[in-house]
Amino acid sequence: MSRWGASKRRTVARHAPLTSPTPLGQALTIAGVTATALLVAGGAVVAYFLYDLSASFAEDAVVLQDQTPLPPPEMGPIEGPFDLLVVGTDECEPELVAAIGPRCTGPDSMNELNDVNVLVHVSDDPRRVTVVSFPRDLMTPVPSCTQADGSTTDEIPKLQINTVYRLGGLACVTKTVSNLTQQNIQFAAKVSFGGVVAITSAIGGVEVCIGNDGMRDPFTGIDWPPGPRTIAGFEALQFLRTRHGVGDQSDLARIGNQQQYMSRLVRKLTSEEVLANPATLFRLAATAADNITPTESLADPLRIVQLALAGKDVPLDQIVFVQYPVLEDPYDRNRVVPDHAAAQGLWDALAANRPLQVAGDAGSNGGVIEVAPPETTDPSPSPSTGGTSAPDPVEEPVVLSENITGSTAEQATCSAGNR
């Protein structure tokens, strides 16, 4: 095994390798995960620049259903906890039609899917960030939704989550995820993937880690050796699309790989390399404005500043990426259903604003491996001296179900590469 192999690798529940989405559906992952990381760590980076870009940003703002009106935004961090849903859809943008082919020219070209669904929860005092990724093949109840023409849809007891967008757009996806998670989602953003790949190039790329003996995926054109690799542009697209190159080649394994990218992008966005470069900041802002359709609650640039200020100083070990817990669908081994018991522990911990401890693997279905931290020698304890004050008590974390996989932005993971 390469030195980029696992430091530990627990056995995890293995679901069937889920069917692969279309190339377009795979490609939109770039937008979803990049925009999520941008909103988690880069909100403060881009928010002030959005004043100059606010007209295009708010042009197609979406109204959320059944939402309590928010007070007008004002300078300073937003008060209290909040939830933001990031939805990535596989719309056929004109510049991508030729490259994508039949998906954008055939009978399914008008059926826009929400293949990326990521919930960002920011707690209050102390601030913590929890990023929850939902598998695209998750089967879930869908509530009645209002469509663009004002008509309403019927409730659906069980539907694949990535088909909800075409029923009622961003508002319907938000309502569905809100019902599933018991979270009051005040803000949401629909993300187009056209041009978002440029984010990694604009910041000089993101360094990821390829584990085991390297990564090979003929479907995305990857044939990379093990070790660190800085990816930007098309290589970032290849990395985030790959399913056959990681873990058990399932979409669940791919989520862990995407979370590695998000974690490393968060660290890049909060580094001085980005924060001290005005040209880079403006390029990031312009890309975000061009590729995000917000809800009306998020369309005011001052509101974005409020959200950004609330989360800008969260320590990396308090930014946690998790996969929503699932079980194999007993009626279809290529689909998954919610593990409500495991999820309830997560929602209870968020409601109580408790720190989280992920007991499961760093990624589902063997998608990533955690890199062993460097060995250090603890210094000998200093002799006790009288009159010293007691250290601040450390809050005990909530240990999540082992069926919840994930890691913090402080942890280092590598892709569990296949060759």
Short description:
This protein is an alpha+beta fold and 419 residues long. It has helices spanning 23-27, 29-41, 43-47, 54-58, 97-100, 102-105, 165-181, 198-202, 234-241, 251-269, 272-275, 278-291, 301-311, 340-351; strands at 82-89, 114-122, 129-134, 139-142, 156-160, 187-191, 206-210, 215-217, 222-224, 227-231, 292-294, 319-323, 326-329, 332-338, 356-357, 368-370, 398-399, 406-408, 413-415.
SSE diagram, text form:
Blueprint: H1 23-27, H2 29-41, H3 43-47, H4 54-58, E1 82-89, H5 97-100, H6 102-105, E2 114-122, E3 129-134, E4 139-142, E5 156-160, H7 165-181, E6 187-191, H8 198-202, E7 206-210, E8 215-217, E9 222-224, E10 227-231, H9 234-241, H10 251-269, H11 272-275, H12 278-291, E11 292-294, H13 301-311, E12 319-323, E13 326-329, E14 332-338, H14 340-351, E15 356-357, E16 368-370, E17 398-399, E18 406-408, E19 413-415
Parallel strand pairs: 1-6, 3-12, 15-17
Antiparallel strand pairs: 1-2, 2-3, 4-5, 6-11, 7-10, 8-9, 12-18, 13-14, 16-19
The coarse silhouette is globular
Q: Major sheet: order of its strands?
A: 11-6-1-2-3-12-18
| Classification by helices and strands | alpha+beta
| Strand fraction | 15-25%
- Tally of separate helices: 14
The percent of residues in helical segments reads 25-40%
Calculate the terminal CA-CA distance, rounded to whole Å: 12 Å
Mean pLDDT: 79
Task: Report the count of strand segments.
Answer: 19
The largest sheet, given as strand count, sense and whether it forms a barrel, is: 7 strands, mixed
